[in-house]
């Protein structure tokens, strides 16, 4: 299996994280990549270093004004009197404000509120370069599977919570969506996205919400008591041309291997019915029973079985890394998943 990784990703080393009103150390840290690399070494897999995604490539799924913001925000922020080291919004426009607004405000504080969904996506001076490097890995994985086979992209920061114009939940550029769109552009008539991260892939759902050519399937913990809180429910099926091309499979808290794999089986059945030409897997490992903020209880063996079940689709498959925050076991879980996949 071809693998892609970039040392540039380490330039994103966020500090800020707000949890239940308490400021905590951010856990989407470069040590995650080190753990994942150890998992690849365990399998004897070497990773190539592709170039970062260009602005033109990012425009395939992201809005121009959002990319401007990501590039400029850290510089403009530190110029503010008394600013902290990372961009963290202190106001978000409410639906009432947006409805009644007569002008767009270009101040960095206003832009930060408009282009971030929450306080879990601090932007530092290296964030954009790191996110573009991660996106470059996802695009390289998509290119690598054009003719069949599978490839893995070690994407950090992750991407599945990022919308076309908004960061959120440790995500800035939607690596998975970029890979899916790249596969479409390279001749795949229909592409399926399978997101097994324990959090709903809300950004990916949002990007393809009105698209019938990309099926988005997400298997995750019940958003009634878990991020992203407002979406991820089974009734959300897409709209317009995308009606029926979004499938959410929320699971009760504490769901272990059998329930998780049963949900995965439902997702795989939907993918088979869709008859895609290619697949993108959004591979988060935070469904693990050993996750610090665990909502699900999947074992190493569960990840190996998931890898085997997904490989049985026999589709060209680009696997993009999403979440998973226990750096002690992240690499082991990756090795078990890819080992099960046959990588
Ligand atoms: Zn997650």
Observed structural traits:
binds zinc ion, 343 residues, Arginase, Chain A, alpha/beta, two-stranded antiparallel ribbon, 10 strands, 11 helices
Structure description:
There is one protein chain. By secondary structure, this protein is an alpha/beta fold. It has one domain: Arginase, Chain A. 36% of the residues lie in helices and 14% in strands. It is built from eleven helices and ten strands. The protein has helices spanning 30-42, 55-58, 64-78, 95-100, 108-115, 127-144, 175-185, 202-207, 257-274, 300-311, 330-341, and strands at 2-4, 16-19, 22-25, 47-48, 150-153, 191-195, 214-221, 246-251, 278-283, 317-321. The protein has an eight-stranded parallel beta sheet with strand order 4-1-5-10-9-6-7-8, sandwiched between helices. Strands 2-3 form a two-stranded antiparallel ribbon. Strand 6, helix 8 and strand 7 form a beta-alpha-beta unit. It is globular, with a radius of gyration of 19 Å. The protein starts with a strand and ends with a helix. Bound molecules: zinc ion (ZN).
Question: Helix and strand layout, with pairings?
Answer:
Blueprint: E1 2-4, E2 16-19, E3 22-25, H1 30-42, E4 47-48, H2 55-58, H3 64-78, H4 95-100, H5 108-115, H6 127-144, E5 150-153, H7 175-185, E6 191-195, H8 202-207, E7 214-221, E8 246-251, H9 257-274, E9 278-283, H10 300-311, E10 317-321, H11 330-341
Parallel strand pairs: 1-4, 1-5, 5-10, 6-7, 6-9, 7-8, 9-10
Antiparallel strand pairs: 2-3
The chain binds zinc ion.
Zinc ion is lined by residues 197-199, 284, 286, 322-323.
